[in-house]
Write a structure and sequence with these properties.
By secondary structure, this protein is mainly alpha-helical. The protein has helices at residues 36-45, 51-54, 59-67, 73-91, 114-122, 129-134, 137-146, 156-162; strands spanning 27-28, 31-32, 47-48, 96-97. Strand 1 and strand 2 form a beta hairpin.
């Protein structure tokens, strides 16, 4: 199978968001995957977005989904409504809603989630609570997404390195 060379993501140098270098490798079926910042926002808004739906959105709408804040209840409701409207507009389908976790593991600064510790152990790596606490919310979120069972995990070591948690 021939690997297709893609242009850099529209998110790569976008000001105002956290976009990670390892995300440049997020390509599936010759399509760039949904960036972590958008996945973070979607989790906060309680919407699951399929890659096929994401790929139909206009690039300016995808950028908007990365830039729109979800810090307050009002912002999250606006984000939720905007995303639902895009899904309906481009697919004619109803959005898939998810329960919003009021206490996500990435938000617990006092404990490293067991799932992450298990993944780190596979590589014989350790993460201190101090390192965990210094990561941004989206970095912690990304690590947990990348270490989930059933996830390809090839970007997990790249993320760990990019976040300065181990020397390579």
């Amino acid at each position: 199978m021939m690997k297709v060379k893609m242009e850099p993501s529209e998110f790569k140098n976008l000001k105002g968001i956290e976009y990670f270098q390892f995300e440049e490798d997020f390509i599936e079926e010759n399509m760039r995957c949904i960036p972590m910042v958008v996945r973070f926002n979607m989790d906060a808004a309680g919407i699951k977005l399929k890659l096929a739906e994401w790929s139909r959105f206009h690039p300016t709408e995808r950028i908007q989904l990365a830039l729109l804040p979800v810090f307050t209840r009002e912002e999250t409701v606006r984000y939720h409504q905007f995303l639902i409207s895009l899904i309906t507009k481009y697919t004619g389908n109803q959005a898939t809603t998810l329960a919003v976790d009021p206490s996500p593991d990435w938000g617990n600064l006092n404990q490293i989630p067991a799932m992450l510790e298990e993944k780190l152990a596979e590589f014989e790596w350790n993460l201190s609570i101090g390192q965990w606490q210094k990561l941004s919310n989206i970095q912690r979120f990304a690590l947990l997404k990348l270490c989930r069972p059933g996830h390809e995990n090839k970007n997990f070591p790249k993320a760990i390195t990019e976040f300065g948690l181990i020397a390579r």
